[in-house]
């Protein structure tokens, strides 16, 4: 399986990375993907996204544009060849 | 008309006529709203409603380009009306000096709304008011060096709440007030341009079912298909 992960805004600024590719032979869900991302970038990104086993307020996780909040949250299965977008929406005006 | 001579021919008579006959509503006359209102008046949109209930604070001056330091302490709504009428007395400006709430009645005849609000709680209220009245909305949000835009059209796209889903109360409590002025004017300009495309019927390249993420710090513009 090949998964493209795109990181935006403050997360990009903090971790200095905008896009990476994750290869895995097993089917994985969102939290497992984030663990692989952490390993690959060598930095703790999960505490920026997850709090008490829930997606943190102010974090949006999209799989091919679909918000995992409208699926199985962190247990949402990641399809092959998809793009996962991680960004904190901004609310100021 | 000479006032519009630098862009009316670019658009063509038919499209410029649509702009002059359009009626829009700008929700919020703060950072985004200042630039959107300024541009809409200069472009020559026929009737411009806006909602704004706050006083001008000194830190607002870094990005709220309708106002000056002399205006600090004054209500933004009448100040904005005066400023816009000075920019272009030929367009009709209707300022509503009140907060948008669940009981707000959207003025009749509005073709398009620009979401220039500064919190998700108010945005979701506006979304509900507009979606049930089948009024489209150009959403924008900004913070730090970053911005996002999406275009919501009832019966074409999901509503705003489904498009960008957050726990509004918790999210609003965490909104940082740090904001770098260029991202505000940049995103508001794109928002205005998006609105003009909608009003003139150029709907092929709208941000419908897409979100544009702008990152001025890394010079990136990304569109995510939703």
Describe this protein's structure.
The complex is a heterodimer of chains A (93) and B (226). By secondary structure, chain A is α+β, with helices and mostly antiparallel strands. Chain A has a single domain, classed as Ubiquitin-like (UB roll) (Roll). Chain A is built from three helices and seven strands, in the order βαβααβββββ. Chain A has helices at 9-15, 30-41, 46-49, and strands at residues 2-7, 19-23, 50-51, 54-55, 60-63, 66-67, 83-87. In chain A, 32% of the residues are buried. The mean pLDDT of chain A is 94. By secondary structure, chain B is α/β, with parallel strands linked by helices. Chain B has one domain (2-225): NAD(P)-binding Rossmann-like Domain (Rossmann fold, 3-Layer(aba) Sandwich), CATH 3.40.50. Chain B is built from eight helices and eight strands. Chain B has helices at 8-11, 13-20, 31-43, 76-87, 120-132, 160-163, 168-174, 181-199; strands at 23-27, 47-51, 92-96, 112-115, 137-143, 146-152, 210-215, 220-225. Chain B has an eight-stranded mixed beta sheet, sandwiched between helices. In chain B, helix 3 (31-43) runs parallel beside helix 4. The longest helix of chain B is centred in the C-terminal third of the chain and has 19 residues, at 181-199. Chain B is globular, with a radius of gyration of 17 Å.
How many helices of chain A? 3
Q: Structural class of the secondary structure composition of chain A?
A: alpha+beta
CATH homology superfamily of chain B: NAD(P)-binding Rossmann-like Domain
The helical percent of chain B reads 25-40%
Label the structural class of chain B: alpha/beta
> Approximately how much beta-strand content do the residues of chain B carry?
15-25%
How are the strands of the biggest sheet of chain A laid out side by side? 2-1-7-5-6
Number of helices of chain B: 8
Question: How many strands, what sense, and barrel or not for the largest sheet of chain A?
Answer: 5 strands, mixed
The SSE order of chain B reads HHEHEHEEHEEHHHEE
**Which consecutive residue ranges of chain A, at least 5 long each, have pLDDT under 50?**
none
Oligomer: heterodimer
The CATH top-level class label of chain A = Alpha Beta
Tell me the CATH topology of chain A: Ubiquitin-like (UB roll)
